[in-house]
Write a structure and sequence with these properties.
Length: 104
């Protein structure tokens, strides 16, 4: 089996060129838009969980709902969703600060 050093060298050059060339701006914009849409959807689901928790608690107080377990579960879901979103916000801010302090 012969080794073709020219092909090997070409592959190495191509792989380093891929690493050296930045990602096209439109690809970065697409990823940012996708992440932005994901965050918006998650914020909306957190808001919906909070609204549902508030409504079911109000219905329980008015006697429309008899099952306290459903009320507690809805409240805990809303609480957990908010805590998770808060943690995500903190992590994103930490990452932003770290990237902004990076020297080029």
């Amino acid at each position: 089996m012969e080794l073709d050093f020219i092909k090997i060298n070409d592959r190495m050059i191509q792989s380093t060129q891929k690493k050296m060339n930045p990602i096209p701006k439109n690809a970065v914009d697409q990823v940012a838009a996708t992440f932005s849409n994901y965050l918006e959807n998650q914020l909306e689901s957190v808001r919906e969980a909070q609204v549902h928790s508030k409504e079911i608690t109000k219905d329980f107080m008015m006697g429309k709902v008899d099952n306290l377990h459903d009320v507690m579960i809805a409240g805990e879901k809303a609480s957990l969703a908010m805590k998770t979103m808060n943690t995500l916000r903190k992590k994103v801010l930490e990452a932003y600060r770290e990237v902004s302090q990076t020297r080029l």
